[in-house]
Specification:
Length: about 170
């Protein structure tokens, strides 16, 4: 490591928390919950992460951003993609959910023990990120990405995106 500085896991987590998600930049990769673990040993850092989905086109971009950020800390990065543990929206941190809401997205509802059902997507449990009303309706199950739907608030008349529960 540069200048004999001792790097801690906390330093690495802080640095990774500054990397924005390529698709939704109001969230960091840490907020999104894709970072599983950070191990610091010797002059290297081993990061395990699970992509939001296997075909994610930003996978290499995210891997390079992590390696670059760790190199800036003076350590060599080993980035491991974990494919045997699927990501879910339950991994989004509380801070990440608040950042989504503040940016005009309805955060995903907690996952049920069973698979999500269409009736869940059509329910009024999704609060409007602008006024907080539960008087919302599903406009289109297909949003700009597979993980989002389009909703409409009948109280304040604002359209908004809602994260699907995955």
């Amino acid at each position: 490591m540069a200048d004999g500085l001792r790097l801690s896991e906390h330093d690495v987590w802080d640095a990774l928390g500054e990397i924005p998600d390529p698709e939704i930049p109001v969230l960091s990769l840490v907020d999104l919950g894709v970072i599983q673990s950070v191990d610091v040993a010797g002059g290297g850092v081993h990061v395990r992460f699970t992509p939001t989905f296997l075909g994610c086109p930003a996978l290499e971009t995210m891997r390079a951003a992590r390696a670059e950020r760790i190199a800036a800390l003076g350590a060599e990065a080993e980035i491991e993609v974990v494919l045997d543990d699927s990501w879910s929206t339950d991994r989004i941190t509380a801070a990440g959910r608040e950042k989504l809401r503040a940016a005009g997205f309805a955060p995903p509802a907690p996952r049920e023990a069973t698979a999500p059902k269409l009736v869940q997507l059509q329910s009024n449990v999704f609060r409007c990120p602008y006024c907080g009303s539960t008087e919302t309706k599903l406009e289109n199950i297909f949003g700009p990405t597979p993980c989002r739907s389009l909703r409409y608030c009948t109280s304040c008349r604002q359209p908004f995106e809602q994260f699907k529960t995955i």
